[in-house]
Amino acid sequence: MDGVLIGVQSYSFRDRPLDAAIKGIAEVGLSECELFQGHVEPKEERGPAGREALRKWRLTVSLDEFHDIRKKFDQAGIMLYAYNYSFRDDFTDDEIARGFEMAKALGVKYITASSTISAAGRVAPFAEKNKIVVGMHGHSNIKDPNEFAKPESFEAAMKLSKYIAVNLDIGHFFAAGYDPVPYIEQHHERIVTLHLKDRKKNDGENMPFGEGDTPIKEVLQLLKRRKYRIPANIEYEYKGGDTVVEVRKAFDYCKSALA
Hints:
The chain is of the alpha/beta class. Helix content is 44%, strand content 17%. It has an 8-stranded parallel beta barrel, surrounded by 6 helices. The chain has a two-stranded antiparallel sheet with strand order 8-9.
């Protein structure tokens, strides 16, 4: 759209299983997707036993399941761009390694991760070995020095390896007190995807697109003007009604912003 790739984080369709999510994405008319791990993995039960069961699943699931998922996206005419696999501090090395095997089976060159700075240090060697770029996803918690939120936290991770990059959530970044527009201009070569959401400033709540304070229009116009080939993925996270209706509203807002 005017040279700007508008897609979706499948987390937006977290209210339904993968097949229904793919159908919803196609219904809205979006042609690019960042796949949420929650659409792939079994739901983790609470407690240590549940965590161990999820770990076992990750290490033993057939990679054919991931090949099949890729086929589903291809058949729907949706480009699968990245896999969202959030490396956390309790991941074993085997779990980290398995994430890269999953990404390769999905045929993607990028992983996005709601991770920590300490986990990023462990992930970097695996990213280099597999030549898959990991985009670290930020939130708005600027009080925890191990969380990605401040520009300095992303900077620290990017210094680890050229395969560690940024998945910039412009809503969270703005709510944390930072302007995404100059940040994207400065770091566009190290940003693998954007998450589009609208939040109020000062760590405010998620809002329908156009009702918060996040400069979504300015970001999209920047991508258009500078011809940055960074997918801008809608992430529907506010309390709304029908998911397809709300994601379509967000997409319509983006189209208007680019007009």
